């Protein structure tokens, strides 16, 4: 009996030690559906407007939604603004899909700015980065607390998205240079063909 009790105690101790060594399960992310839509967000780009990456600018403004009760923003410390893929640009692209669990969300990949929260609101002028892919987009802003956790949000309408024309990687100057070299190659080939023909005739 004493041996059995000693064995059980040893097993219990081993289980406790093993549990202490294992990593803690990952905490679930914040869910968008649980956040208050406390921020009013607008963007200068209109529905269907095309912005060119590396060239055009986008002005984003945000403020506390006037429908929110006083004190709603008591915990707000910062505002983070992201560029998000609109539904049309998420279709059949799992790497762009939105998710209610913000730790798994892939739609809002592009951070535009993060600023200290001000009750009077804020704005930011963003030059569309050269690495933004071609697609349809909208803007979302998160209100963050002191720990950096999302506690509120706002966005422009995902159903009235604007477009970005991305850079393909082939610049006009490269195309012109390629055309010039191609023309030169053809002219050189013709010249040598004529010279060889004259040599044969002689």
TrEMBL record:
Record Pfam families: NAR2
Entry keywords, A to Z: Cell membrane, Membrane, Nitrate assimilation, Signal, Transmembrane, Transmembrane helix
GO molecular function: nitrate transmembrane transporter activity
InterPro entries: Transptr_NO3_Nar2
Protein family: Belongs to the NAR2 family.
Biological role stated in the UniProt entry: Involved in nitrate transport.
Signal peptide: 1-28
Coiled-coil segments on the chain, per record: none
Protein name (database record): High-affinity nitrate transporter
GO biological process, one term: response to nitrate
Cellular component annotations (GO), alphabetically ordered: plasma membrane
Cross-referenced PROSITE patterns: PROKAR_LIPOPROTEIN
Domain of life: Eukaryota
Transmembrane segments: 176-195
PANTHER family tied to this protein: HIGH-AFFINITY NITRATE TRANSPORTER 3.1 (PTHR34806:SF1), HIGH-AFFINITY NITRATE TRANSPORTER 3.2 (PTHR34806)
